[in-house]
Each structure stands twice: as C-alpha cells, then as structure tokens.
Amino acid sequence: MTKHCLVTGGAGFIGSHLVDLLMDQGWNVTVVDNFDPFYDKSIKLSNIAPHRDNPKYRLVEEDIRNLPGMREKLNDSYDVIVHLAAKAGVRPSIQDPVGYQEVNVTGTQNMLEFAKERNIKQFVFASSSSVYGINPNVPWSEDDHVLMPISPYASTKVSGELMGHVYSHLYDIRFLALRFFTVYGPRQRPDLAIHKFTKLIKEGKPIPVYGDGSTRRDYTYVEDIVKGIRSAMDYDKTLYEVINLGNNKTVSLAEMIEAIEQTLGIKAIIDRQPTQPGDVPQTWADADKAHRLLDYEPRGDFSREMARFID
Ligand SMILES: NC(=O)c1ccc[n+]([C@@H]2O[C@H](COP(=O)([O-])OP(=O)(O)OC[C@H]3O[C@@H](n4cnc5c(N)ncnc54)[C@H](O)[C@@H]3O)[C@@H](O)[C@H]2O)c1
User: Fold this and answer.
1) Is 309 a residue whose pLDDT tops 90?
2) Whole-model pTM?
3) Could you list the active site residues?
4) Where is the NAD(P)-binding domain (predicted)?
C-alpha cells in the first residue's frame, strides 16, 4: 500500500525539498503549513506549486498551535510525521521568545499528541545545531550531553528533543531528532546570510557583517539534509535517537562572503557591525552517527553548490 507522510512546514525551504523527493518516490503527502508571515507567502506558494494538482498531494492550511483544527482537518491515516514547522530564526527569537515557545514547543507537543491519538509510530523532528550553543568541544558529537544554548530558539529545540523522549518512552513512538547544521541551497530562506548577502551584493548595497568575519559555520546542502530525513523516515532499530546532520567541515563568514563575490564577480561592500546576541562563534558537526545509523554521506561541495544557489 502507498505510504502516507504528514509533513509540517512542508511549504518552507527544507520541507518543500523533502516533498519533492517524496512525490518522486510515489508517496502520498499531506502538508500542514500556516504560511507564517516570517517571509513572503508567495515564495512558499511557488515552492509547492508543482504538486498542487497532484491527487497524491494535499495541502492543509492550519496552524500547529491549533490541535482541534488539526484533528478536524487531518482525516487520513499517516505512517510517519516529519515535523519541520517552526519559527526558525535565531535572532528574531530574542525579540519574541513567547511566540517561539508557542509554535516550537506547544506546536511540537500538539504534533506528538496527534501522533499518540492516531497511533502514528514514526516521528522525525527538525532539531538544530544551535542546541550545542557555546559548547567549545567541536566537532560536536551527540554523545556530548552538555548543551549550552544561547537563544530562545535553541532552547525550544532542546525542549522538542526532550518531549520526543517522553512520548517515545510512554507511547512507543519512534522519535528521531535530527540536528540540522546551517542549511543552504535553492529556495533558502531569505533571512539567512547566504541568501541575504547574495541579493544585497548583486544590488550593489552594503552587507551587514556581524563581528570580524571569523565565525564559522558547518554549511549543509539541502539535498543532503533531505536524504538524511528520508533515511530517518525508514529507520527502525531503536526507539529514540538524536542525530547530527551536518557537513563535517566549516567555512568562515569571511570565506563565505568571498565565495559569493567570486561567483557573482562583484566585490562586496562590508558594513561591519558588532556580534549579535544569540549568534554562536562556531558550529561543526561530527557526522559519524548519521553515517552509521542513516547511511548519511554529505556530498554538497560548498563552492559548487553556492554557484548553483546563485544561479
Ligand atoms: N534552515 C536551517 O539552516 C535550519 C537549521 C536548523 C534547523 N532548522 C529547522 O528546520 C525546519 C525547517 O526550516 P526551514 O529553514 O525550511 O524554515 P522555513 O521557515 O522555510 O519553513 C518552516 C515552515 O513552517 C511553517 N510554519 C511556521 N509556523 C507554523 C505554524 N504555527 N503552523 C504551521 N506551519 C508553520 C512556515 O510557514 C514555513 O513554511 C525548522 O524546524 C527549523 O527550525 C533549519
């Protein structure tokens, strides 16, 4: 029988790439998304446009904070939930910690309740590298339980991981928390640095650079993330796992800007700004566990994929 995946946040950047893959593989897919105004709805509508008329695809415009609404509108039987819906910005979470808590914590709890009520036994959760925060022991390994989050956003992702443990233990729901490391690629959210800088440099406008350019990120290509999610959907060994999905390499902010300059053939005008609260100095994934459990092998090469993104 054709399997059915419920994807929350499926109109967004990562979600829409996952939906593309699932549709290619013949899944039935239901997307729950409320088109959160964090960025333009038209971008999300264009992300999902290819599937709107496919009978195997269903879009449910609903807010994950509204559990009764989901109970009413989601009537199919689902084999797996991939829960990606969230308020996703680090810096904006400092201005709106309660809003982040409501969507990312209560919303996640609602999805877990939904899984419990409907007997859905596989739950994949989008966590984040930001849970490690300022833990200095890089590359970060899942075995290192010293989490030092420094933004409300990061703390909501820690909460999601812990709630998942509770539901997996009490209700036998297999819960995979995947810690994504800075994801980039086509359709990247407009608030993220690569997207924002590319646009400003092309327009000849100054780019705000926070700090001296030495902060480092483990940039992960969206196709690699989607393959990791897909593999987690089939994982059937243990009931609860936390798994890094990163690229296992780091790129400094200065190198990232240089890569954009080279691809565009335009020199950036730098508007140097102080380091922002909530920003961590580095992220770096140990990807061994993902390799062992999910057969995960990131293939995205930063300069090559940057060129594709800019295209
Ligand atoms: N992009 C990254 O680098 C990155 C890194 C780590 C973790 N993540 C996590 O991955 C997931 C997907 O991120 P993304 O970059 O694709 O972000 P995105 O903003 O493009 O996608 C999130 C989607 O969730 C939807 N959404 C938000 N609030 C909702 C609500 N209350 N009810 C229903 N839908 C709602 C939004 O409309 C959006 O379509 C998020 O959970 C994010 O925290 C992303």
Assistant:
1) no
2) 0.97
3) 153
4) 6-303
